[in-house]
Specification:
The structure holds two protein chains of two kinds. By secondary structure, chain A is an alpha/beta fold. Chain A folds into three domains: 3-55, Alpha-Beta Plaits (2-Layer Sandwich), CATH 3.30.70; 71-255, HUPs (Rossmann fold, 3-Layer(aba) Sandwich); 277-397, 3-Layer(aba) Sandwich (Rossmann fold), CATH 3.40.50.1220. Helices cover 28% and strands 27% of the residues of chain A. In chain A, helix 5 crosses helix 6 (168-179) and helix 8 (288-301) packs parallel to helix 11. The termini of chain A are far apart. In chain B, helix 3 (94-108) packs across helix 4. Classes of the chains: A alpha/beta, B alpha/beta. Chains A and B meet through helix 1, helix 5, helix 6, strand 11 and strand 13 of A and strand 3, helix 3, helix 4, strand 9 and strand 10 of B. Strand 22 of chain A pairs parallel with strand 15 (240-241) of chain B.
Chain lengths: 399, 263
């Protein structure tokens, strides 16, 4: 299967090079040439206004999915507590379901968790699929994947959303294989494309350098994981819903793994996902003593304390405090980045903060490109001064 | 014990920039490296080899230059390498990639443990590991940062959670995806690298026919998700630099905070 250019018809307008998601095209002597990276995806064919690009590929038939309906959300719970991301996804699910004229459902799996069903209904679920068993008490991959396999086969949802948590990113790809459907990870945007009525899934790639919009035309359910802290919670107080119970037969041998121990780290004083202000530190903090200055500033502000991957690797912050592409995404009103260069992987985790302050010795640090207010200076001078002035202010105001 | 490690050669995304004119990625001059999480998987495998006398086979799907990643892995201590390379593999999403890798693993034969990095720094999906595990019907543990012990039929590992970790006992054979642990990945030894680069190095190159797959099952045709478009993220702000002495600058900053009702 190949894609090629009819050189005579090409006028070098570059529409195709811009449309190519694989950087496979380049202009030489005013005409476009298709290079090695071409995957025959055909994006260039649609882009070309002169119909100069041809292919011998036969279009893939899109199956009839009219018997698939419903926007489902995995209601992740740990120790009987719902993860906030489940409610955020129910908010988004309501919007998607409205566009499709379909219903929202939550999938609740665990042991003695039926009490949570009411909460799920109050936050948007029309139906809650409840699967309870002692063997499902704590998340284990093969057990939960099997439950989803049965539910999806029985009830045929159109869309299935999960939070991109440690559990979600373990479970979603497993379910995707189990049910034979495509999955898009870490979505930051979801919408229904009006012409085809399918889910357009937008997510960062290449460490956050590029945004990609992705579709799943040939399989169902359309699956996506979504980062916590990205979607809005939409409460639906007084809403009525149905609980549908399902039973899955499972043996320990089939699950093949056992949790020996769960060790919790001490919880950070302020939960980053709820903090209005966050003070964050990176390599510029130098060492644990340097990070203490940031901790003092955070205390003066009643703020959450966070850091880059470097800060976590150095042991200055726990795993839950790492902000970025492989850490958490935060959206505080104010994010104060101290000694952080602003590499793309970190920016991906905080760039939706309402206001961003950057303090860095290097005037060319990329962090200044995303800052509302930038201070080129040594954090060892600026941060203690900021703490001092804030404390004085508080004394004056709190008297 | 037979260990298979899945690795990927990726562009160093910290150095990747977008061309403002074309909106495409500038790949020239960007170094091709072994994906960082995969280095941790390799380090874990080689450490297990040293402790339990295992054979380590490293497997990668990529263009011909991905062979450099295999040589580097063998320089670190892997015993043999397999490169899956075929134009027909191109354009694969994680579904098609996991299928291709799964078929290759079945072709390799017996194994006790498969290790993979948690996610690649270009795709960032963290999907291929678990999807390969399901294709092969293996138990999996993701986000593994420490292996406590292994015996003939079980492995005990520590798995990172957002707020702590779990200790998990998993039956073998199994697949683990790995993140950074206590040990830094070792550098390749020059002596081993030279052996890996010579003509009769234990590296096999397989194409689609070698692993018995059809074009409809792999590459773009075998994918279930497709990229509609790519674009540059918009995140630049009109920032202002605060100037002056430290106390002036801080005073002005606090004034901005108050103006915007942040404190």
């Amino acid at each position: 299967m190949a894609v090629w250019v009819q050189i005579d018809l090409c006028d070098g307008c570059r529409r195709c090079t811009r449309a190519c998601p694989y950087d496979a095209m380049e202009i030489k002597d005013g005409k476009v040439h298709i290079g090695d990276r071409c995957t025959s995806c055909g994006s260039c064919i649609d882009a070309c206004r002169n119909k100069a690009i041809l292919t011998d590929a036969k279009p893939r038939t899109i199956p009839d999915f009219s018997d698939h309906a419903g926007v489902w959300v995995f209601a992740e719970q740990r120790g009987g507590e719902l993860n906030r991301v489940s409610l955020e996804l129910l908010g988004k699910a309501q919007e998607l379901a409205k566009h499709l004229n379909q219903e929202v459902a939550a999938v609740l799996i665990g042991d003695r968790v039926s009490g949570l069903a009411d909460i799920l209904i109050e936050f948007g679920a029309d139906t809650v699929y409840l699967v309870e068993d002692a063997i499902l008490k704590d998340y284990r991959t093969k057990a939960y994947a099997r439950v989803f396999q049965e539910l999806v086969a029985a009830y045929k949802p159109n869309i299935l959303l999960m939070g991109a948590t440690h559990i979600g990113r373990d479970l979603a790809p497993r379910v995707s294989r189990r049910v034979g459907s495509g999955l898009t990870a870490d979505c930051t945007g979801l919408s229904i494309e009006p012409e085809e009525g399918i889910l357009w899934q937008t997510r960062p790639a290449f460490g956050g350098n590029v945004m990609a919009t992705i579709a799943n035309r040939f399989s169902r359910p359309q699956m996506a994981t979504v980062r916590p802290g990205v979607m809005e919670i939409i409460p639906t107080p007084g809403k009525k819903g149905t609980v549908v119970t399902h039973v899955t037969e499972l043996t320990e041998q089939q699950i093949a793994s056992k949790i020996l121990e769960i060790v919790k780290e001490t919880k950070p004083r302020v939960d980053l996902s709820e903090a209005k202000i966050i003070v964050a530190g990176g390599r510029g903090a130098n060492d644990a003593a340097g990070f203490e200055l940031l901790r003092e500033l955070a205390e003066a502000l009643g703020a959450g304390l966070a850091g880059t991957r470097v800060a976590f690797e150095q042991g200055w912050i726990p795993a839950a405090g790492q902000v970025g592409q492989t850490g958490v995404t935060v959206r505080p009103d104010l994010y104060i980045a101290c000694g952080i260069s602003g590499a793309i992987q970190h920016r991906a985790g905080m760039m939706d903060s309402k206001f961003i302050v950057a303090i860095n010795k290097d005037p060319y640090a990329p962090i200044f490109k995303v800052a509302d207010w930038g201070i080129v200076g040594d954090l060892f001078d600026v941060v203690p001064e900021l703490t001092k002035q804030l404390q004085t202010l508080c004394e004056v105001m709190c008297d | 014990m037979n260990i298979i490690v899945l690795i990927k050669q990726v562009p160093n995304t910290s150095d990747v920039k977008l061309d403002p004119k074309t909106g495409n990625l500038i790949r020239e001059g960007v170094e091709a490296i072994i994906n960082p999480d995969d280095l941790h998987a390799l380090e874990t495998a080689i450490t297990l080899k040293e402790t339990y006398d295992a054979t380590v086979t490293v497997l990668t799907m990529g263009p011909p230059q991905a062979i450099d990643a295999l040589s580097e892995a063998m320089g670190m201590g892997a015993d043999q390498g397999v490169l899956l390379s075929d134009r027909a593999f191109a354009g694969a999403d994680t579904w098609a990639t996991s299928f291709t890798l799964g078929k290759a693993i079945q072709h390799i034969g017996e194994f006790d443990l498969i290790l993979a990095g948690r996610q690649a720094i270009d795709g960032d999906t963290a999907q291929v590991g678990p999807q390969v595990a399901d294709f092969l019907d293996l138990p999996q543990v993701t986000y593994v940062f420490d292996i406590e012990g292994v015996n003939a039929d079980q492995i005990v590992v520590k798995r990172r959670l957002e707020d702590g970790y779990e200790r998990i006992q998993c039956s073998l054979p199994a697949l683990l995806t790995v993140i950074a642990g206590a040990k830094k990945p070792r550098y390749p030894l020059v002596s081993k690298l030279l052996l890996a680069c010579r003509e009769r190095a234990p590296i096999k190159v397989w194409n689609a026919a070698d692993i018995g797959v059809t074009t409809a099952e792999i590459g773009l045709d075998g994918s279930l998700t497709h990229v509609i478009k790519t674009f540059a993220p918009k995140f630049e702000r009109q920032g202002e630099f605060l100037e002056g002495s430290t106390s002036e600058v801080v005073h002005n900053l606090i004034a901005r905070f108050k103006e915007n009702k942040l404190i």
